[in-house]
Amino acid sequence: VTEDLTIHSHAGPYTVSFESAPLPDPACWLDRPHHFLVDANVAARYRVRLGPILDHRNTILIEATEANKTIDQITPVIERLIAQRIRRDHALVAIGGGIIQDVCCFVASTLLRGLPWRFLPTTLLAQADSCVGSKSSINVGDAKNIMGTFHPPTHVAIHHGFLDTLAPADLRSGIGEILKVHAIEGLAAFDALAAEYDRLLADRAVLRRFVRDALRIKQRFVEADEFDRGVRIVFNYGHSFGHAIEAATRYAIPHGIAVTIGMDMANHVAVARDLVPRAHRDRMHGVLRRNYEEFARVDIPIEPMLTALTKDKKNTSTMLGLILPTGDDAAIRLVQVAPDDAFRAQCVEFLEELRA
Ligand SMILES: NC(=O)c1ccc[n+]([C@@H]2O[C@H](COP(=O)([O-])OP(=O)(O)OC[C@H]3O[C@@H](n4cnc5c(N)ncnc54)[C@H](O)[C@@H]3O)[C@@H](O)[C@H]2O)c1
């Protein structure tokens, strides 16, 4: 029985393969005209193993920073690819986490009006979440993920060995997205995951099972609504607040951890607005807090956070579009919220509680 997933996208099916080899064999990736976009950190850590790829003339190293995910910083990458004489029968290969993926996917979807791209995700967040879904997301100034395209990869190969060198905060960042996906699936799925939280960190087999479960849950939503016009919107749970927290702290908090704080904040706001019983927030709070504890005391200034919230893609001209739990079963859905004094007070209250 293969663990691999076949994802059906508008551009055709593609495979997410769970490789048994901990790390990739470069020979398998040098058999075609490829241009590699590689996370500089990954290149440094896997210098020997990835040597033939890193020494390839068509390899570009990129520091995985949010600043390098801006349109300004992508232009030099495109210029390099043009200098490398990239053609439509070539493919791009991203080796890194969500940042390298976003850069690669964006370039692949626009350069020469579309090129194939393949992905070797090296972070837990990219392996468990972002590798499926077709999206590229690019920053403009402090407006995070404000621009982008839908352009699925042609193949995703997951090698678990990359996780061995991840910083603990980056491991928790990936777990944040796994928690989010399971919360969307429902209370039972979330509780089952929360009960295994310690083993997730300690046992790779358990982690691998939840990575695959998270991708399968996401697959259902992405196949039903690849272009994010309907049901897929719930995947933004924790993200409106999470992106605003990232922007307000100048990205001092890893993405998936900001999303974990964002879910707790969404739950707090939902309770304050009588959308969901208090017991729901309490039920999720313990494991969310454990996942973001290391960053709970990072200063999140309220004004920049609220300003960033008003730039969210889901807003209308007068209302914030927030993804909140609602009802006795805490179903996640889009709720229009006026950016008024009451909402502001709910945010302030949460941030004060966070630091307490
Ligand atoms: N396009 C999408 O669908 C989508 C979905 C979710 C998130 N994202 C984006 O992804 C980004 C976050 O991605 P991420 O969490 O994967 O992190 P990342 O790409 O920012 O990488 C996090 C850190 O881990 C390092 N790193 C990567 N692989 C490593 C490894 N194997 N060993 C040691 N260090 C390694 C990187 O150099 C970086 O310092 C955000 O910009 C977010 O907006 C995109």
Give a short summary of the structure.
It is built from 14 helices and 11 strands.
Describe the fold and architecture.
The protein has 356 residues and is an alpha/beta fold. 46% of the residues lie in helices and 18% in strands. A seven-stranded mixed sheet has the order 1-2-9-6-5-3-4. Strands 7-8 form a two-stranded antiparallel sheet. The longest helix is centred in the middle third of the chain and has 21 residues, at 204-224. The protein is globular, with a radius of gyration of 20 Å. The mean pLDDT is 95. Bound molecules: nicotinamide-adenine-dinucleotide.
Features:
356 residues, alpha/beta, 7-stranded mixed sheet, two-stranded antiparallel sheet, 14 helices
Q: Strands, helices and their partners?
A:
Elements: E1 5-9, E2 12-18, E3 34-39, H1 40-45, H2 51-54, E4 59-62, H3 71-83, E5 91-96, H4 98-110, E6 117-121, H5 124-130, E7 135-140, E8 143-150, E9 155-158, H6 168-185, H7 187-195, H8 197-202, H9 204-224, H10 239-248, H11 255-272, H12 278-292, H13 302-309, E10 320-326, E11 331-337, H14 341-355
Parallel strand pairs: 2-9, 3-4, 3-5, 5-6, 6-9
Antiparallel strand pairs: 1-2, 7-8, 10-11
Helix pairs in contact: 5-6, 5-9, 6-7, 6-9, 6-11, 10-11, 10-13, 11-12, 11-14
The structure holds nicotinamide-adenine-dinucleotide.
Nicotinamide-adenine-dinucleotide is lined by residues 39, 41-42, 45, 64, 66, 69, 96-102, 122-123, 125-126, 129-130, 133, 135-137, 145, 162, 165-166, 170, 173, 255-256.
